[in-house]
Amino acid sequence: MKNPCSQIYAGRRPFSEVETRNLASYLYSIRRRLKGYIDFHSYGQLWMSPWGYTRTLPPRYTKMVIIFNNNAQLQRTKI
Fold first, then answer.
1. What is the 3-state secondary structure (H, E, C) of 37-70?
2. How far is CA 49 from the centre of its chain?
3. What is the tens place of the pLDDT at every residue in 15-71?
4. Which of 55, 53, 50 is nearest to 67 (CA)?
């Protein structure tokens, strides 16, 4: 999507926005201590893995699904 007014505009290139670039820089700086990261997207209200761009299942998919399902259940109980 190339229209910057679109709700699904992804930017001119990866990390083109200052917020995204700063967050990426910070996460990279703590990468050895980082155990996981959750990015909430409200547009589609979806729980997606980093592999959401392909139909190929990621390594350790079964473990990821268990973690996702547990976290999704926790989110439902906190509201």
1. CCCCCCCCCCCCCCCCCCCCCCCCHHHHHHHHHH
2. 7
3. 888 988 999 999 999 999 998 777 766 666 666 777 777 788 888 889 988 988 888
4. 50
What is the spatial distance between Cα 56 and Cα 66, in angstroms, rounded to a whole number? Answer: 18
Distance CA 17, CA 12 (A): 9
Length of the chain (residues) = 79
**CB–CB of 11/17 below 8 Å?**
yes
pTM as predicted: 0.54
**Distance between CA atoms of residues 22 and 1, nearest Å:** 23
